[in-house]
Amino acid sequence: MMRKWNLRELLFKHDEYNIVGHVRADGDCVGSQLALHNVLKASNIKCNIIKNDNYGTVLSAFFRGYPVMDGENFNEKLPLICVDCSDFKRTGPKIFEKYSKPYLNLDHHISNDNFAQHNIVDANSSSTAQLIAESLIRENISFDKATAEALYLGIMTDTNRFAYSTAIDTIKVVETLMGKGISISEIHRSVYERNSLAKYRLLERFLHNISVFGDGNYCTSFITENDLRETQCEPLDTEGFVNYTRQIDGVKVGAFLEFHDSYLKCSLRSKNSTSRMDLFAKQFGGGGHPAAAGFTVDAAGENFYNNFKFALIEHVKNLPGEKS
Ligand code: 5GP
Ligand code: MN
Q1: What is the pLDDT of residues 95-152, one digit of tens each?
Q2: Range of the domain at 279
Q3: Exposed site from 21, 205, 229, 265, fewest CB < 10 Å?
Q4: What are the pLDDT digits (tens) for 246-274?
Q5: How many angstroms separate the CA atoms of 94 and 58, rounded?
Q6: Nearest to 126, CA basis, from 142, 110, 138
Q7: Are residues 166 and 262 located together in one domain of the fold?
Q8: What are phi and psi of 41, to 5 degrees?
């Protein structure tokens, strides 16, 4: 497919940038930020990574040696690059309240609302990292091994280790990244084999709370802020939990809710992209992809969980082609 944008033209226009990903960072937003930082640095362009949230133990390790700036103290006059953010609010209040319009929006969410001055958005891309990697390769922008590692981190995590429907384009990009000398097993270990025992204690509670309903088509679970406190976990320790809900035989749609004291976070996953999790999330002000989406709302009342389960069944029933 012919891509219409020119990343080189947009990237090499200014001599200093701020760059940010979304709150509740994941491998894709981290890898994309680090890759762009490296590419810019190689051309003597300064790129400040703005810390908008807690990165957690696993992802923090990837930032070692990079110029990460406190989200309270940064020069808001500099052009801002946003990566992996479906809307500007996903950058978090520290950022979006200070900028009226970001310079560049690089993303792959179907729900992206083109919030920046320049928008490079491709919902066919597995990850923002793939979109960046393909642009670098196509436009002959040179990049090194560390950049290839960062891009692989993004692709590996957003494809759930290539388990989601993976296009040949993704594999071709990985082939080029491997040509730079990266070790895929090392990157895999650095993300998936650094679990804490505390995370397993939280997982016990999550599994305990799992329920399947609606003729076995739906599976949900939850944890509370109290569970996090008692197991001494942080919110990022729940990474990957939602997959257990979808992975049950017969389940079409899975959801995981985190009931925090001041907010509620929901992760949604479906086996098929026809279930349009992005549209369901949109009902609650969220977004994402057809088979993986989420939303965050203010602290919810006691009835939320039951009402939510009902709304999920209604959403799937009302999809085109679904029998009511
Ligand atoms: P996760 O469930 O892993 O947090 O997120 C899955 C997908 O849903 C990601 O692509 C993410 O961007 C999107 N998503 C998760 N939470 C939110 C949210 O609060 N708002 C929006 N707009 N998207 C979200
Ligand atoms: Mn992503």
Answers
A1: 999 999 999 999 999 999 999 999 999 999 999 999 999 999 999 999 999 999 999 9
A2: 198-317
A3: 229
A4: 999 999 999 999 999 999 999 999 999 99
A5: 23
A6: 110
A7: no
A8: -60, -40
Tell me if 324 is assigned to some domain.
no
The answer, yes or no, to whether any atom of ligand 1 lies below 6 A from the CB of 108, is no
What number does the ligand 1 atom closest to the CA of 86 have? 22
Claim to verify: residue 98 and residue 203 sit in the same structural domain: no
The C-alpha torsion from 127 through 130 and 132 to 138, rounded to 10°, is: -150
CA geometry: angle at 26 spanning 10 and 175, to 5°? Answer: 65
Q: Quick one: which atom of ligand 1 is closest to the CA of 85?
A: 12
Cβ of residue 33 lying under 6 Å from some atom of ligand 1:
no
Residue bearing the CA closest to ligand 1, atom 3:
267
Q: Nearest-CA neighbor of 129 among 21, 56, 48, 47?
A: 21
